[in-house]
């Protein structure tokens, strides 16, 4: 590595841009339901799966809620007497293994040994874990493609300058049982795990530059707060009660110390920080290894906040990032909240839906 297509078919509900433009073809509720029923961890609420039988039927008993892993790990919540956070027992997801692949549009599809990829972000990932960008760097090191890239400190990310001499690239990805979606997330912070589908494609320069500006804005916000992650606007919409928080200070809790380095802040850390401050009660998490046909999941899922308990087809979903790309235009992506690294997001939203 040197140091230096848009969706065309708007009848395809897998294209987020088309979903936002053609509300008569698929609603937000329908879109979220398809995501949940394909086994994706939108916000980490396992109880949704009981509403999915008619959408994504599964063979055997795993189709029902609560049977995702046979017996899910018990939930954990802050002790009621002092409001402090009781960390869940450590869990370890699978290390990447086997054969993975990435499609680079107009170039080819490349296979790789997932156990051989090394991370270029040891500040983010624990040994054995890595990002989607690291896959491209690995292919470059093997001489299978010519990757020109550099690390931009003002954006805190690696920037692809060219692949095989061609410029203007972005990417899409999804985990097991998901689909490709628009994102505005740093490629070198997007965790690879077994079953990941990943493609790189030519993107309009103005969209890529707009995403990069949000990265610069995040870093400026982080510097303004002397390195402290402070989310300007944080909303939680739940049955019977909604919360609006301003300037939420977030600290790391190392819930996923198997994947992420100590001190790395995630989307889940924001909720835990609110619980520690006494602004939320009964924050409960459950570990799932798999859910219906999605395997692996290997994440903690939010089961309860305050009096809202996920059950049947009801629970929380979330999004966080830049408002410029709110919703399905880039901030609402299916990375589980316990491994979604946050730098200094402009907003966070957790909301309740019933399928």
Question: How are the secondary structure elements laid out?
Answer:
Elements: H1 16-21, H2 28-37, E1 99-104, E2 108-113, H3 132-141, E3 147-152, E4 157-163, E5 169-174, E6 197-202, H4 205-224, E7 229-238, E8 241-250, H5 267-276, E9 284-288, E10 299-305, E11 308-309, E12 314-321, E13 347-354
Parallel strand pairs: 1-6, 7-13
Antiparallel strand pairs: 1-2, 3-4, 5-6, 7-8, 9-10, 10-11, 12-13
Report on this model:
The protein is of the alpha+beta class. The protein has two domains: 16-90 and 212-354, no CATH class; 99-211, Ferric Hydroxamate Uptake Protein, Chain A, domain 1. The protein has helices spanning 16-21, 28-37, 132-141, 205-224, 267-276, and strands at 99-104, 108-113, 147-152, 157-163, 169-174, 197-202, 229-238, 241-250, 284-288, 299-305, 308-309, 314-321, 347-354. The strands form four sheets. A four-stranded mixed sheet has the order 2-1-6-5, with helices on one face.
Mean pLDDT: 82
Domain module count: 2
Uncertain residue segments: 3-29, 34-71
State the end-to-end CA separation. 46 Å
User: What share of residues are in beta strands?
Assistant: 15-25%
Strand order of the largest sheet: 2-1-6-5
What's the total number of strands? 13
* Percentage of residues in helical conformation: 10-25%
Based on secondary structure, the structural category is alpha+beta
């Amino acid at each position: 590595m040197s140091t230096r297509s848009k969706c065309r078919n708007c009848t395809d509900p897998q294209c987020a841009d088309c979903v936002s433009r053609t509300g008569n073809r698929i609603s937000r509720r329908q879109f979220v339901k398809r995501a949940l029923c394909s086994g994706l961890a939108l916000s980490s609420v396992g109880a949704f799966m009981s509403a999915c039988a008619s959408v994504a039927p599964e063979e055997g008993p795993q189709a029902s809620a609560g049977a995702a892993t046979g017996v899910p790990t018990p939930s954990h919540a802050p002790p009621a007497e002092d409001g402090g956070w009781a960390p869940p027992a450590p869990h370890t997801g699978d290390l990447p293994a086997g054969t993975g692949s990435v499609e680079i549009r107009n170039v080819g599809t490349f296979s790789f040994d997932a156990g051989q990829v090394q991370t270029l972000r040891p500040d983010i990932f624990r040994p054995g874990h890595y990002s989607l960008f690291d896959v491209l760097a690995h292919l470059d090191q093997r001489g299978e493609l010519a990757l020109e890239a550099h690390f931009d400190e003002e954006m805190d990310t690696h920037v692809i300058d060219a692949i095989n001499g061609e410029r203007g690239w972005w990417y899409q990805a999804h985990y097991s049982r998901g689909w490709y979606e628009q994102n505005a997330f740093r490629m070198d912070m997007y965790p690879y795990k077994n079953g990941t589908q990943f493609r790189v494609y030519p993107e309009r320069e103005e969209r890529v530059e707009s995403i990069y500006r949000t990265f610069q804005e995040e870093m400026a916000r982080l510097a303004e707060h002397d390195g402290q992650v402070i989310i300007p606007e944080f909303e939680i919409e739940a049955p019977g009660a909604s919360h609006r928080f301003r300037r939420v200070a977030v600290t790391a809790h190392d819930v996923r110390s198997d994947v992420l380095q100590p001190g790395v802040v995630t989307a889940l850390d924001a909720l835990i920080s609110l619980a520690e401050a006494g602004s939320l009660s009964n924050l409960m998490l459950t570990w799932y290894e798999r859910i219906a046909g999605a395997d692996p999941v290997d994440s903690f899922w939010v089961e309860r906040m305050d009096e809202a308990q996920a059950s049947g087809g009801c629970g929380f979903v979330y999004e966080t990032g830049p408002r410029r790309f709110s919703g399905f235009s880039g901030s609402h992506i299916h990375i589980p909240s316990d491994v979604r690294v946050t730098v200094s997001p402009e907003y966070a939203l957790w909301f309740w839906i019933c399928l």
